[in-house]
């Protein structure tokens, strides 16, 4: 058991460690668009789910931070490892072998997989390379966001500049934007 002096030292050391986005509150622009997405979903009695890779749960964190989240957000799957993408979300071996997990095809299958798994009306997925190094020969900052809904599945390719935490935050915002755009277009 840690003594109070040890706990204080640990707390003191932790406080000096710079935060990189994992334990921070969502930025106000993220909350604004998350609230707009939830209003669109709520107004039509629709539910949303998420499948995340490079955002590591941050997308779900932002969506659940907006007021009224329980009325529109079912939850999600953090599928950081390829095996989780395949076993839980149903990403095919062929997709992984032919296109890789950093691909539009993978983003589409992740979104469809979590939509089927949860019964959500819409699902949004994130996959890509946050860095600091390349993955599958693909550059840092490359991201794919997929959206599955009642009218089909589509994904969009993005490339963001910045450090790892910045890239992840930009992907979260882009994912919410794309989900909102899709829901509005489906009216």
Descriptive notes:
The protein has 187 residues and is α/β, with parallel strands linked by helices. The protein has a single domain, classed as Maf protein, CATH 3.90.950.20. Helices cover 46% and strands 18% of the residues. It has helices spanning 4-16, 28-43, 58-65, 82-87, 93-98, 104-118, 164-185; strands spanning 48-52, 73-78, 122-128, 142-149, 152-159. It has a five-stranded mixed β-sheet with strand order 2-1-3-4-5, with helices on both faces. Helix 2 packs parallel to helix 7 (164-185) and helix 3 crosses helix 7. The chain is globular and about 40 Å long.
- In total, how many beta strands? 5
Q: For this structure, what is the CATH homologous superfamily?
A: CinA-like
Q: Provide the gyration radius in Å.
A: 17 Å
| Assembly level | single chain
Give the distance, in angstroms, between the N- and C-terminal Cα atoms: 57 Å
What is the total domain count? 1
What percentage of residues falls in helices of 4 or more residues?
Answer: 40-55%
Shape summary: globular
How are the strands of the biggest sheet laid out side by side?
Answer: 2-1-3-4-5
Judged by helices, strands and strand pairing, the structural class is alpha/beta
């Amino acid at each position: 058991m840690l003594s109070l002096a040890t706990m204080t030292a640990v707390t003191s050391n932790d406080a000096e460690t710079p935060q990189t986005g994992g334990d921070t509150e969502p930025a106000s622009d993220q909350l604004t668009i998350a609230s707009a997405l939830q209003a669109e979903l709520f107004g039509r009695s629709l539910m949303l789910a998420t499948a995340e890779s490079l955002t590591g749960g941050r997308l779900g964190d932002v969506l659940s931070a907006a007021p009224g989240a329980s009325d529109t957000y079912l939850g999600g799957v953090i599928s950081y490892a390829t095996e989780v993408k395949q076993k839980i979300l149903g990403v095919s071996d062929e997709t992984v072998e032919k296109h890789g997990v950093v691909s539009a095809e993978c983003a589409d299958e992740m979104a469809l997989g979590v939509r089927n798994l949860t019964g959500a009306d819409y699902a949004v997925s994130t996959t890509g390379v946050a860095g600091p190094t390349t993955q599958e020969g693909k550059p840092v900052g490359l991201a794919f966001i997929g959206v599955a809904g009642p009218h089909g599945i589509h994904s969009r390719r993005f490339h963001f500049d910045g450090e790892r935490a910045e890239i992840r935050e930009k992907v979260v915002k882009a994912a919410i934007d794309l989900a909102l755009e899709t829901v509005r277009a489906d009216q």
